[in-house]
Here is the input.
Amino acid sequence: MIEPKHTLDKAREAVKLKNYADAIKIYNNFFEETFKNSAKYGVRLSYCLSEWAALGKIYPPALKKLKNKKDETLLLLKKEREPERFHDYFAICKQLKSPELPYQEFLRLHKTDKVLSSQIIHFIWEELIENKEWKICIEYLEDPLKKYETYLTRFDTIFKKYVHDNSTSHDKEIFTHGFNWYIKEITNILRVLKNNNKIEDYNLIRKRISSDFTSRGLSKLEVLIDRKIE
Here is the structure.
């Protein structure tokens, strides 16, 4: 994979030297050049954008450029129909302290473009759950059992590794993070089903969860699920 020509180290050096205009260009180029670069995925949406936003607090043109990037990203989402553009938009809005914008945009797409909204819903799923948009959520939960099994498979990868190698605090931290993620996701499935009165599906998955927890020696932790279900 080609390494981006413009690196964040160069941007940081430019900021240190107060070459703010150059820093803006480097942040922007890094952000664009690393689109779909899996090795830089987290860095571009965290460090790159957070540092860019921080620069905007002391250099207004940087803030203006970031706001323009937000608008440009939304236009690209609608033009290219590339789901990752929505993730970019979500991340930029977060740095601009405007988390309501991607949420509102998703609601518009939900009404006007179901094909695209179904491709980006995983980026906004947590917000829909938090806002108790149960009717919307159920429209995108076509096969609850399959969704549950997908989460279980991912969790099992973490669980099996932990069973065989749990000697360090880092191993335990990874397992705890994975377990908490698993609990959150399967609980969300149950909450959506329960709040849409899908009792048969709810009971089916709840029994499956109980069986899966028991077979993995985690039955005592089932209470964590019940506490989260409304």
